[in-house]
# Entry
Amino acid sequence: MGYGGLIPFLGLTAAVWVTPPGDRLFASAALLGYGAIIVSFLGAIHWGLSMRPGVAQPLPALVWGITPGLLGWVALLLDPARGLVLIAMLLWGCFAADRVLYPRYQMEAWLPMRLWLTLAASSSCLAAAGGLQR
# Structure
């Protein structure tokens, strides 16, 4: 399912590059919204992990859990090119946090896939941002 989640990233990035200028804004807005939802989801995973029975609920994990969603919302307020760059940065920030936090939950087996998903999704965002500048 993780790799299937790349379909909107890749498809909407392609749309930014191949559609007429008027349609590029729609494709980039759709990509920006999708990216904001994904980073919000990546943060929310930490809430779910912290709220399992028998697991202490450390405040930093809970604060981190809402941070990507809030910053994703900020990305939605920016012009699409800058918002997409922020989403790409947030995707890498989420990956960096997961590299530290996933081993605490015995979830490090997910990290190789997360690396590839982060690379593809962030590259799509940056390529779309570039496509808007032409």
Remarks:
- The chain has one domain: 6-132.
